[in-house]
Amino acid sequence: xxxxxxxxxxxxxxxxxxxxxxxxxxxxxxxxxxxxxxxxxxxxxxxxxxxxxxxxxxxxxxxxxxxxxxxxxxxxxxxxxxxxxxxxxxxxxxxxxxxxxxxxxxxxxxxxxxxxxxxxxxxxxxxxxxxxxxxxxxxxxxxxxxxxxxxxxxxxxxxxxxxxxxxxxxxxxxxxxxxxxxxxxxxxxxxxxxxxxxxxxxxxxxxxxxxxxxxxxxxxxxxxxxxxxxxxxxxxxxxxxxxxxxxxxxxxxxxxxxxxxxxxxxxxxxxxxxxxxxxxxxxxxxxxxxxxxxxxxxx
Amino acid sequence: xxxxxxxxxxxxxxxxxxxxxxxxxxxxxxxxxxxxxxxxxxxxxxxxxxxxxxxxxxxxxxxxxxxxxxxxxxxxxxxxxxxxxxxxxxxxxxxxxxxxxxxxxxxxxxxxxxxxxxxxxxxxxxxxxxxxxxxxxxxxxxxxxxxxxxxxxxxxxxxxxxxxxxxxxxxxxxxxxxxxxxxxxxxxxxxxxxxxxxxxxxxxxxxxxxxxxxxxxxxxxxxxxxxxxxxxxxxxxxxxxxxxxxxxxxxxxxxxxxxxxxxxxxxxxxxxxxxxxxxxxxxxxxxxxxxxxxxxxxxxxxxxxxxxxxxxxxxxxxxxxxxx
Lengths: 299, 324
Fold this sequence. Notes:
Structural class of chain B: mainly alpha
Oligomer: heterodimer
Strand order of the largest sheet of chain A: 5-4-3-6-7
Largest interface: A-B, 25 and 26 residues
Largest sheet of chain A: 5 strands, parallel
Helix content of chain B: over 70%
Distance between the termini of chain A: 68 Å
CATH architecture of the largest domain in chain A: 3-Layer(aba) Sandwich
Order of helices and strands of chain B: HHHHHHHHHHHHH
Number of domains of chain B: 1
Radius of gyration of chain A: 22 Å
Order of helices and strands of chain A: HEEEHEHEHEHEHHEEHEHEHHEHH
Number of strands of chain B: 0
CATH architecture of chain B: Orthogonal Bundle
CATH superfamily of chain B: ABC transporter involved in vitamin B12 uptake, BtuC
Number of strands of chain A: 12
């Protein structure tokens, strides 16, 4: 009896589990507009933000439609390599609802920051998840990715990949160990935006154990910055991603004050891909950011 | 059948054909047969036809009519060919009010949009009216004052949107005018306003013709000129504001439609008003249809397209009425 009762107990505990696994799929996901219950695993998925594509690629699922602004190259290559071809559904700002409906999706993943006003319409087309894409940190993004993986019934794959990812990030963190300050910024012809530690790129830098030149705790992810403010921030390394061909940096570099910047003295101004560092976020993007940092620091 | 009835009928026919075209064309092109089937029975394309394109077409027609009639009334009362609700800052005021409200209460019911926009429109109109009393500017100068006020109001909108970085598409709607994301939930709050205001404007048109003879003559002919002026201006502001409440500051329709209508049927308000309403509906509907079809699935704001036709025409008018 003493041997049989734990067995019986185990059997009793496992019974509901085996019952669940016989069901096709029933996922319940808490998202920014409520709770979504899916009766079966979605196969035709439309995503309206780049970071969600990263999450699907990690889970091994190809979306049928992406709001890619009409340009497939806006999806970073490491993500593109993992997914099949997709149809564009317009811009991320104003995705075309008719193009989405024409794809007959069974799951739409929309950006709660951008698509709040069309949530009702999207829900008429297909079950819709509203999740955050912009202005969230590395850790917050991992939580979003986990939600997406459970929606497409790939939690196991996600967990395995997450382990690998964490090991990679830890290895790179150990390689990068130093006390310099690192700052990522987007530059355009209209100005410069520093990405603080509460932005995605900023929080990846922090995750790798590197310092930010911003000493105060800043809640805003993107800070528009003048040349004077850049001089005050004065990072040891400045990593810039360009959205336009000509930028304010062209002008700033001609200023006599430019030489006052530590990164100008030590030639630690590095041009990086804006698509990888800012347009998207996710495990694949984070690994690429970390690798890029490592390759520059080794030189 | 008179030439006028023929013109009206062909206008209606054109609008109907354009609406059919707009129902069939877009990111997903549908054959007319499928469109008709879906309209009656629903089915596979139910969302695209009945929930997406149909309400947008209705809104485009309603808003186009509203802006055009508002333009005719403004031009008639101020007797200034350069006047129109968007160039007088009325659209800007309505847009600023609606935009502020949405920033404060993002989840507010759409029913509140028109009355709030109305408040903004009336405030802007009051400023113009005070300036007019105080300074009595020439028509061309009044138009420039209006543009300055419009520019000021849209910079206020811009400032608000930078302070509260929300969705970029709301900036598109409030600064350039767009029908993106507009569905049945926006048709219902708009419709009752227009059902009241449009017939009322048609009624006013009768007296406006006498008003065109000059205030004294109209007075002598038994028109209550003060009352008419106030009634016409109030309905002009109201029509423009409720239109702006739904799809933002779509520019130049209120200026362009009355001029095109006068080109077609002369200057009698009774005749101009229905034609202008048709022209306005045609303008906004074709702008939105183009906006959806120029580079699908990318969508452009309809206001950009009306500005492409409207802005050069405004410059032409400004040049033509230089000494006016």
